[in-house]
């Protein structure tokens, strides 16, 4: 039997300030697939989104720079031997810098760092640390940045392999881009 984790990652909904609702195509995924847990990278701007997510799975969530919700500013999740850090990312300068995110993750001895704030999705590996950003689940504008397509991520962790599935929501379909990464240590699944 192969053991693995399946984690849903999203953030920057900005509901109701910049968007009215979560994309229907995303809600279909949320309601039909099973996730070990959900990670939200901040900027809910309304408790309603958090409550919706909690109806479907355990949620690890942080507050972003636009939130007035009583949540931590950062988290470290110990999952099956991996240290997963979660930050919003608004204090990283320059904004979204891979170098600065990697430096932060190394200082905290993280295996994976998940951030938001930029509304641009990415999956990078730097110095053996996996850096992920799911983009904005609603695709709303950020600062001087124009709207982007709504996006979220699904992280699959299996032994020494991490697979990050970046899912972009288009008008007609879900577009999936899959990145595979080797991890420096193996997951510790108990049987």
- How many beta-strand elements? 11
Classified in CATH, the superfamily is Metallo-dependent phosphatases
Order of neighbouring strands in the sheet with most strands: 3-2-1-9-10-11
Q: Which CATH architecture is right?
A: 4-Layer Sandwich
Order of helices and strands: EHEHEEEHEEEEEE
**SS summary, helix count:** 3
Features:
191 residues, alpha/beta, Purple Acid Phosphatase, chain A, domain 2, 6-stranded mixed β-sheet, 5-stranded mixed β-sheet, 34% strand
How is the secondary structure organized here?
Elements: E1 5-10, H1 24-32, E2 37-40, H2 47-54, E3 59-61, E4 74-79, E5 82-87, H3 98-107, E6 112-114, E7 122-126, E8 129-133, E9 151-158, E10 161-169, E11 174-182
Parallel strand pairs: 1-2, 2-3, 5-6, 6-8
Antiparallel strand pairs: 1-9, 4-5, 7-8, 9-10, 10-11
What does this structure look like?
The protein is of the alpha/beta class and 191 residues long. Helices cover 14% and strands 34% of the residues. It is built from three helices and eleven strands; from the N terminus they run E-H-E-H-E-E-E-H-E-E-E-E-E-E. The protein has helices spanning 24-32, 47-54, 98-107, and strands at residues 5-10, 37-40, 59-61, 74-79, 82-87, 112-114, 122-126, 129-133, 151-158, 161-169, 174-182. The chain has a six-stranded mixed beta sheet. It has a five-stranded mixed beta sheet with strand order 4-5-6-8-7, with helices on one face. Strand 2 (37-40), helix 2 and strand 3 (59-61) form a beta-alpha-beta unit. The model has no long low-confidence stretch (mean pLDDT 91).
